[in-house]
Amino acid sequence: MSAPEPTPSADNPSTPERSLNFIEQIVEEDLRTNRNGGLPVQTRFPPEPNGYLHIGHAKSICLNFGLAKKYGGKCNLRFDDTNPTTEETEYVDSIQEDVRWVGFNWDGLYYASDYFEQLYQWAEQLIQENLAYVDSQSADEMAKQRGSATVAGIETPFRNRSVEENLDLFRRMKAGEFPDGAHVLRAKIDLAETHLIMRDPVLYRIRHAHHHRTGDKWCIYPMYDYAHGQCDSIEKVTHSICTLEFETHRRLYDWCIENLRIFPSRQYEFARLNLTYTVLSKRRLLELVKGNHLAGWDDPRMPTLCGLRRRGYTPEAIRAFCDRIGVARFNSTIEMSWLEDALRDDLNKRAPRAMAVLKPLKVVVTNWPAGEVDWLDAVNNPEDASAGSRKVPFSGTLYVEQDDFMENPPKQFFRLGPGREVRLRYAYLITCQEVVKDASGNVVELRCTYDPASRGGNSPDGRKVKATLHWVSAEHAIATEVRLYDHLCRQPNPNDVPEGVDWKTTINPNSLEVVPQAMLEPSLAQAAPGSQWQFERLGYFCVDSVDSKPGQPIFNRSVTLRDSWAKAQQKAGGQRS
Ligand code: ATP
Ligand code: MG
Fold first, then answer.
1. What percent of the chain has a predicted confidence (pLDDT) above 70?
2. CATH for 128
3. Which end of the chain has the least Cβ crowding within 10 Å, N or C?
4. What is the pLDDT of residue 12?
5. Least confident of 13-17, 197-201, 559-563
6. Which uninterrupted H or E stretch holds 495?
């Protein structure tokens, strides 16, 4: 797996003084040479409204909006809605919500469909200048004639239609006289071009389909390659930034703009974001949603922005991640742990701490005065003094984590075991005196004594107590569902499957673990939907904004405290450097 760029150093993870990325260098050079005649930097983020945005789109959003912000320019949000059959208003709305959530506001809000009339007029102009013609062959025939990198294409018999005939046919295409596929409009460029894309590419096709905005007004629709550059040009986009797979399309982008003699927008390509253990393609994410593999676009396992939001990701973490991974011209795959680290860094500073026990084991404190409750001071956030403190109740019956007890603990295990003394966070030192089991031999209760002189967790005589455990008071605890997540896919690169094997076979069947009855400290009963918490020793959690009810929050684990997955992997195979 290649490393992201620039690589931050261990002691300087956020590279605050990072050098200019290659696009910033281009922009600065353009400003220096006044290449755009005094026009401000104009960028755009151009999603096709055919799905929800994912973390890859966030990279493009941060880049486009970030450039405009940095250089005092403007950035538009433009829906690239030239394909009527896949687009829906639901997606248009979610995209706007997500862009705002990442932290940006667009200067102009446009739709490629706003420009259909202008695009059509320009197509007529190309026909008038003998730079475009109507081809009446089938798509199959056209594909056969296209040739290859080493073999020139073959001319269609319709290539030399007169301007009048082309205009007449194109107007009748627009008027709806022909069925889908009967004709297309093609640019007249060169069939011997080494760039296949330049071999008389299709500019318009007939599609009798309802469009989410223009309704049934149009039955011919422009192709992406014809529409995109002209839309940029109309909006006076100075730097049209797209992903590397469009590099070969740049010739056509320039050809259209040059031949139409319109504002010279220019296209620059950068590497798209790939992340380990997930897929970043709307088509694949749609497969997951349609196939009911997950609960929907906002399932917290999805790499969509709404999924990440529901999982507990913050816009700050997403922006910091996008900044750290940088912008380059070669493709690479970023480790998921980079995204998780960005969230930990952000939440560590501001998530209030709380105690919760996921897999409860009952502890009875045998020498605790019957019926007494001690309300202890607990620090809300050791990283933020202004967060203050709260009271947590301690009583004679508690829960600790099952994993914090071993009947026959090995040497390195410092937590509870028969005869062992541990510290309960903010509370007391307790010693395990007796282990109670059920008929099948399962440990169901620990009977412990506490040291009254250790209030606050201090060791009264300086004796060594290594482990500090989290806990909750049984009578005060609120029982609620907690959802724990693992990677969406089992292998680092889910696209890396043998020929003929469905990538969906790489889906991790254990990506969701539901803990039906976790025990939480009582202050969490009123936790607001979407609010974020650190459960001590367990990770960062947020209140699920969809399924929680007032007084009955359901928590999603956003991320563990450490990268336990990477550690487990390392142990298992030692494959991580
Ligand atoms: P997908 O392949 O997921 O459907 P797309 O490229 O078709 O994505 P668009 O709606 O066309 O999706 O994308 C809007 C903008 O976001 C484009 O400029 C595109 O280049 C950029 N983008 C999409 N995916 C990524 C990614 N993984 N990393 C960076 N930028 C991306
Ligand atoms: Mg696209």
1. 94
2. 3.40.50.620
3. C
4. 42
5. 13-17
6. none
Tokens in use for 437? 């089991």
Pocket test for ligand 1, best of 60, 94, 224, 231 (most atoms within 8 A of CB): 60
Question: Within this chain, do residues 78 and 186 fall inside the same structural domain, yes or no?
Answer: yes
Angle between helices 116-128 and 163-175 (to 10 degrees): 160
Please tell me the predicted confidence (pLDDT) of residue 411.
Answer: 86
Q: Which of 282, 319, 415, 425 is catalytic?
A: 282
Q: And the tokens for 516?
A: 């039906």
Residue nearest to atom 4 of ligand 1 (CA): 282
Residue 383 exposed, middle or buried by CB count within 10 Å (0-12, 13-18, 19+): middle
Computed on alpha carbons and rounded to an integer, the radius of gyration of the chain in Å comes to 30
Same-domain check for residues 443 and 468: yes
| Claim to verify: residue 450 and residue 564 sit in the same structural domain | no
In a domain, residue 285? The reply is: no
Return d(Cα 485, Cα 558) in angstroms, integer: 8
Yes or no: say if 185 and 170 are a contact pair by the CB < 8 Å rule. yes
484: Cβ contacts below 8 Å, ≥ 6 apart: 358, 512, 513, 514, 515, 557
Question: Which ligand approaches the C-alpha of residue 246 most closely?
Answer: 1
Question: Same structural domain for residues 489 and 462?
Answer: no
- Could you tell me if residue 165 is inside a domain? yes
Decide which of 302 and 2 is more confident: 302
Residue 27, pLDDT > 60, answer yes
Is 13 inside a domain boundary? no
Span from the CA of 3 to the centroid of ligand 2 (angstroms): 26
What pLDDT does 491 receive? 96
Pairing of strands 132-135, 184-187: antiparallel
Return the CATH number at 364: 2.40.240.10
565 shares its domain with 511: yes
Q: What is the 8-class DSSP label of residue 130? A: T
Ligand 1 atom 25: the closest Cα is on which residue? 56
Give the span between the Cα atoms of 254 and 266, in whole angstroms: 8
| Positive or negative: CA dihedral 426, 427, 432, 438 | negative
Q: Which domain holds residue 505?
A: 291-318+344-350+482-520+525-577
- Residue 221: the pLDDT is 98
